[in-house]
Amino acid sequence: MFRTKIAGIGMYVPPRVVTNNDLLKYMDTSDEWIQERTGIKERRYAHRTEETTATMGVEAAKIAIERAGITPQDIDFIIFATLSPDYYFPGCGVLLQRAMKMKEIGALDVRNQCSGFVYALSVADQFIKTGMYKNILVVGAEKHSFGLDFSTRGRNVSVIFGDGAGAVVLQPTDPSTGSGSGILSTHLHSDGESAEILAMYNPGTHANHWMPEKYADFDEAEIGQMFFSHAMIDKAQVFPNMDGPAVFKKAIVKFPEVIMEALAANGLQTTDLRLLIPHQANLRIAQFVQQKLKLSDEQVYNNIQQYGNTTAASVPIALCEAWEQGKVKDGDLVCLAAFGSGFTWASALLRW
User: Fold this and answer.
1) pLDDT tens by residue, 111-124
2) N or C terminus: which one in the chain shows less Cβ crowding within 10 Å?
3) Which of 69-83, 205-219, 235-249 is the least confident region?
């Protein structure tokens, strides 16, 4: 039986580099403070008006399509993962389809935040295996810098995130080759019990339903305008919220679990892994996972130091960079794993 293979991969990060010291202009922080807590040294920020989540996705997609040896006209389905779309609606998938002048193919948008790319990969894998599509473009892209709180109040979140995009073209393998390459399995999970721990509440239609305590100082008229209002801006209710320690505690449990789940499902062990590419959430999380699974430095790829947390884009960016550096070769066993808002977590095990 054929499997789903990555036929082409590409990445794009904006040229503008923002160091930790650059953030001192906006908030009370320091390079030492940021590196100690996150491992991040710098990140990339997109141009405010000339680049969007969709346009960055296009740039990554161009490279992936070229490396796959096909053209945009050959793509028969798009899956676009992001938490920072160009518009509240429509999604970025159709914007990419338009920009690349593709045929009138289907475009699906995935909203699973940090786990978005792995979720999208899993969905695409099912379409390929059933024979419904033969060239699926999967994109993960984010423009975080447009919606962060650049003040001391927001520093715990704002210092972490960066902009960028990654993309892959997925195709069926040729079973006659007997290479055994391709996606071996994917594993998806969620637990919404603590959804508000890592979330951006507004704009939204919750109208105070899930978290009345956070809007206790809003009067009745303000609550009646809960989708978006001046009161939300005045009271800083329009920025991402995160309980960092709570996220850390959950992530260091679920990350190893979902990695081991993938290996066990295929009768493999950590010693069989050539490379683990974790979502680049926090270098401390990745280091904890590496230690818990007893993986060597050569078995784990991290680039959060240079790009920050690019959410849905982080896994494809890291995978692309690792491949470009020769760290992933034919026959290598690679595990992709992610954990993020929702909470959602996921893994994909593949033979390159």
Assistant:
1) 999 999 999 999 99
2) N
3) 205-219
Position 187, amino acid: H
pLDDT bucket at 222, cuts 50 / 70 / 90? low
pLDDT at 330: 94
Q: In 10 A of CB 216, how many CB atoms? A: 8
Q: How many alpha carbons fall within 13 Å on the CB side of residue 170?
A: 29
Of 2.40.110.10, 1.10.3730.10, 1.10.150.20, 3.40.47.10, which CATH number belongs to 182-194+242-351? 3.40.47.10
Are the C-beta atoms of residues 190 and 344 closer than 8 Å to each other?
yes
Boundaries of every domain in the chain: 4-177, 182-194+242-351, 201-238
Q: Which residues pair with 275 in a beta bridge?
A: 334
- How far is the C-alpha of 227 from the C-alpha of 207, rounded, in Å? 7
Q: Are 293 and 283 in contact (CB under 8 A)?
A: no
Q: For residue 79, what pLDDT is reported?
A: 98
- Both ends of the chain: CA-CA distance in Å? 17
Strand partners, 164: 142
Q: Give the active site residues.
A: 114, 279, 309
Mapped onto helix, strand or coil, the DSSP state of residue 326 is coil
Alpha-carbon distance of 24 to 21, in angstroms, equals 5
Instruction: Please answer whether residues 82 and 312 qualify as being in contact, where contact means their C-beta atoms are separated by less than 8 angstroms.
Output: yes
- What pLDDT digit, counting tens, does each position of 18-39 carry? 999 999 999 999 999 999 999 9
Q: Give me the mean pLDDT over the 180-188 stretch.
A: 95
* CB proximity list for 40: less than 8 A, separation 6 or greater: 20, 34, 159, 160, 283, 304, 305, 308, 309
Nearest to 147 by CA among 157, 135, 133: 157
Task: List alpha helices for 294-351, DSSP H.
Answer: 304-307, 314-324
- Consecutive H or E run containing 198: strand 198-199
Would you state the structure tokens that stand for residue 274, as one six-digit string? 């050539």
pLDDT at 45 over 80: yes
pLDDT band at 229 (very low <50, low <70, confident <90, very high): confident
| CATH class name, domain 4-177 | alpha beta
